[in-house]
Model the fold of this input.
Amino acid sequence: MTGRLGAVALAFLLLFGLLPAPAAAQDRSLVIVVVDFQRIVRESAAAATVREQIDELRTAYQGEFARIEEQLRTAEAELTNQRPVLPDEEFLRRRRDFEMQVTEAQRQAQYRRAELDRALDSAMDRIQSSLLEVITDIAERQRANVVLNRSNVVMVDQELDFTEEALAELNAVLPRVDVAVPDQ
Done:
């Protein structure tokens, strides 16, 4: 118990500067870099190209599914019109076939949405990975030993904020990301 209390007291004294810090800690001063990670990702040229491509794919998928939906409505209307003239067994068989088509269309739509989400996540991961490399380079050039995300900082001296520099460097090294969606 005494050893533990002594360690806590030593940490307290070091923390509040009542004892000198070890020599290695004294040699290096604290250098902080702050970046607004979310803003950089959001405003980057690469993210703009990703949003544009995702919007185009989403529009194409919506058009495709609007056509399928219209075909299903037409098939349902034909089935409803044929109901009075079809034998019960034939009507039930056609109804089951129609329901299977609806289920398949729903499955396909769900698959396409998930595919689009995966493609978006992959593209954004590439942007974030490149941004981390840019931030690492900035931190090394500044000889920073701490990098903070702006969202975790209440106030900061603007000289410590390297958001604009990181955004410019990211745009230079990664101006575009192609969204990869597997063909179906």
